[in-house]
Amino acid sequence: MITAIDHVQLxxxxxxxxxxxxxxxxxxxxxxxxxxxxxxxxxxxWFQAGAVQLHMGVEEDFRPARKAHPGLRVTGIEAYAAHxxxxxxxxxxxxxxxxxxxxxxxxxxxxxxEFLEPRV
Length: 120
Known about the structure:
- The chain is of the alpha/beta class.
- It has one domain (8-59, 68-118): 2,3-Dihydroxybiphenyl 1,2-Dioxygenase, domain 1.
- It is built from three helices and eight strands, in the order βαβαβββαβββ.
- Strands 1-4-3-2 form a four-stranded mixed beta sheet, covered by helices on one side. A four-stranded mixed beta sheet has the order 5-8-7-6, with no helix packed on it.
- A hairpin with a 2-residue loop joins strand 3 (45-49) and strand 4.
């Protein structure tokens, strides 16, 4: 029986780890978590915020995910969007999900990310 999502993995090109670290820890406020040594040899990096984990795996023939994406629930979404904008990330608001505020952004390698907050 499935009880939760353990993590979401996104792909990234070889050599992009420093840019990913700067974005996911700096702009998004996540914490980098260590990969097991046998997996660390493959490159990439893992990040966590609360119970949410994003794993960035290196893919030689990388193409960014433009449609597929993780949906990340946040609090204080307007302030969070302003913070990302101040960090140089373009945000695109989308009012098409009833009962939610949400926007989309791209990470430094072009992967789509969705940020949403239920309306109270």
